[in-house]
UniProtKB/TrEMBL annotation:
Gene3D superfamilies: Cytidine Deaminase, domain 2. Residues 12-150 form the CMP/dCMP-type deaminase domain. Belongs to the cytidine and deoxycytidylate deaminase family. GO terms for biological process: pyrimidine nucleotide metabolic process. The keyword Transferase does not apply. It comes from Paenibacillus prosopidis. This is dCMP deaminase. The active site is at residue 95. GO terms for molecular function: dCMP deaminase activity; zinc ion binding.
Length: 176
């Protein structure tokens, strides 16, 4: 291989870290959604996490998902309509696990790569965690508006890697 071909095959940093986030997500045992998140400081990987039950506690594969039903409002033909939605609440979200397993000092000015756009609670916690940038791939429209507003208020860079192609091993089905 000459240098040019090698360079073309070389992954850029965004792809490199999002690939890792997707590989981390394959550890998840919640069948509804596999989420991975990584903490990056100056191109150095400082932490990885995925969504899962607390250590030593039965997970979704062993005990089944713990389903909570919620009512969400959605705009249909210009009118807000209530919709029932199911959510698995057995798992700690990947972003929250990432915060539990990294140090504040390591997070100051860092970037979080996460396979899925953070929900409101995770976004709120990340906004207070010292990180300065969030890069995600799959969108999560439910909380999009308020999360974007929060990131703007906090001056946190919030980007979607929409051109990204997840690695073949990643589990892409999402139950919503
Ligand atoms: Zn589950
Ligand atoms: Zn979340």
């Amino acid at each position: 291989m000459n240098i040019q071909t090698q360079d073309a095959a070389r992954k850029d940093w965004d792809t490199y870290f999002m690939d890792i986030a997707y590989m981390v997500s394959t550890r998840s045992r919640c069948s509804r959604r596999h989420v991975g998140a990584v903490l990056v400081q100056g191109k150095k990987l400082l932490g990885t996490a995925y969504n899962g039950a607390p250590m030593g506690v039965q997970d979704c594969l062993e005990a089944g998902c713990m389903i909570a039903e919620e009512v969400e409002m959605k705009l249909v033909d210009g009118r807000e309509q209530p919709f029932k939605k199911q959510r698995c609440i057995r798992t700690i979200h990947a972003e929250q696990n990432l915060l539990l397993f990294t140090d504040r000092a390591d997070r100051e000015g860092s970037i979080v790569y996460v396979t899925d756009q953070p929900c409101w609670t995770c976004a709120n916690m990340l906004a207070n965690s010292g990180i300065m940038e969030i890069v995600y791939h799959r969108s999560y429209p439910k909380d999009n508006e308020k999360v974007e507003r929060l990131m703007e208020l906090k001056g946190i860079i919030f980007r979607c890697l929409d051109h990204f192609e997840p690695p073949a091993q990643a589990h892409m089905e999402v139950t919503s």
